[in-house]
């Protein structure tokens, strides 16, 4: 009888302990870290030339090395996110800054957002056309305006007033994106592709957003996201990238997240904040929280894409429900992971 | 010994039961419900004439009666939210639709969003200038576009293509808002007021957003928010009202929320989704979740404002950290609450 009662006690005690689970990690191990993405989507090995594969890996390595060096030298997570994203915005490979995709009128409309997990402060721009590095404009909105989100011509004007680097519209436009717009419009016109009836190529044209999350040695998390949005977008559409809570969220109490994918579904799922809420309120690990939101919630609605994130212990999440996501991670020891395809 | 063990078992069992707390309510009692706000801020009895007080209460009563009648007749929460908000958008008393506040150039820029808690689908517009009823445009974006959020001239163009009611820019402009803009600009020019150094009058000029949350007899929650934003806003600023997760969120699994207040802080706090996350993930009541987010989180950052919300059981929250909030609630029994001041 006594044994039975002790057993019952044990079982009850154990079931009590199950929730909430707290993420635990040897805090001395990862004193800082950085993770980036360059977009998620139908990225198949068979469709990539060895040259393209190598070019993406090289730029991801260059970008993450910039931020890692800042963090290793004791710099802030804000500086690491900004400078890392600059490398990707300045590269025509990614759908952000130079090389952004084109809207239905053949123009770029640039979206970006940034969040500082220490102050819970944030900045964002949407629909800008002349800001060379949108992530810097998002940070300037946070630091130097009374607002959090500026848009369209006003965002361009603010950036210029702040003395940020501006570029003429044709700086951003590349042959590759002109061709992509023509092909998407032709596929749409012929009825081959629509948002409901997608070809792999069509689907790919809303991918390529870049993002970065960093944890610095002071324990501060920052997250940023920058994108040109979706090829052939209309009506000054705004996606998830400039939306705090959807494309970007950072909170020292939980984690930082940057998302990439089909923005409409990421807004509806409030992806970045939902992952942070599962970490903070349910005690889930960042990896488990990301898995639930990307594979169960977003996928259930019919959306696809992925996220990268870091929690306050340096635990990393790189989660996607697509065939690939350009992504890289470096920890405090300088160990580097660079991946493109889902399985590699 | 045996008694001690039974006692221990009881204690452990009880402590296990404590978390998560599930909101419980007699489901047969509130089969539907509706709650609205018309803005939160420095609304003091001493500054209101009896006529103004009566005019606000009359319009709140008219608005909520429209939605309540739809719900009582078995209509959808979407229809109830839309038609209720129309009454407030069409009234010059509130900062939405006709009577919206003016930006630094003396123009209106209209923001609105809507979320359907059954489908987790959503729509939003930001920075529109010619849409008579912005909430209807937000719903049309959800139902009739592949996007969730449209902005500026594109939002106006989309609404026109959809055959929604358009209005010339001067339809929206009222003497009261022209005077308010002049006074805010004069106070700013004289250094009396700035975003850091606020006068009560200046502060008031970012208030008046309208919103509605409804629970219909099918158990579906919908939420919507519509606003002209902040008087004297610059750079095509976007506030929290059109941001899914910040100003508006609805999820049948938890609750629906519409927010009003200093939008910048509501974006940073992802207010609407954070309340829903506390309800869903921590099992808090909607009232307790709203109290934590408005009084602890938003207030701690320096922000003010309020929310209205309903959970799936019809439990209501009307929470603010300001001197007042225009607000009303009606339950399935037709019991009506209309309040303006914090204490009444």
Mean pLDDT of chain A: 90
User: Largest sheet of chain A, if any?
Assistant: 8 strands, mixed
Helix content of chain A: 25-40%
Shape of chain A: globular
The assembly state of the depicted protein chains is: homodimer
- Per DSSP, what share of the residues of chain A sits in E-state strands of 2 or more residues? 15-25%
Number of domains of chain A: 1
Which fold name fills CATH's third level, the topology of chain A?
Answer: Glutamine Phosphoribosylpyrophosphate, subunit 1, domain 1
Keywords:
homodimer; 344 residues; alpha+beta; Glutamine Phosphoribosylpyrophosphate, subunit 1, domain 1; 8-stranded mixed β-sheet; 4-stranded antiparallel β-sheet; 11 helices; 13 strands
Outline of this structure?
By secondary structure, chain A is α+β, with helices and mostly antiparallel strands. Chain A has helices spanning 2-18, 50-72, 77-90, 134-144, 152-161, 169-172, 175-189, 200-204, 263-268, 271-282, 286-301; strands at residues 33-41, 110-116, 121-128, 149-151, 210-215, 221-227, 237-238, 248-250, 255-261, 305-311, 316-320, 324-331, 336-341. Residues 7-28 of chain A have low confidence and may be disordered.
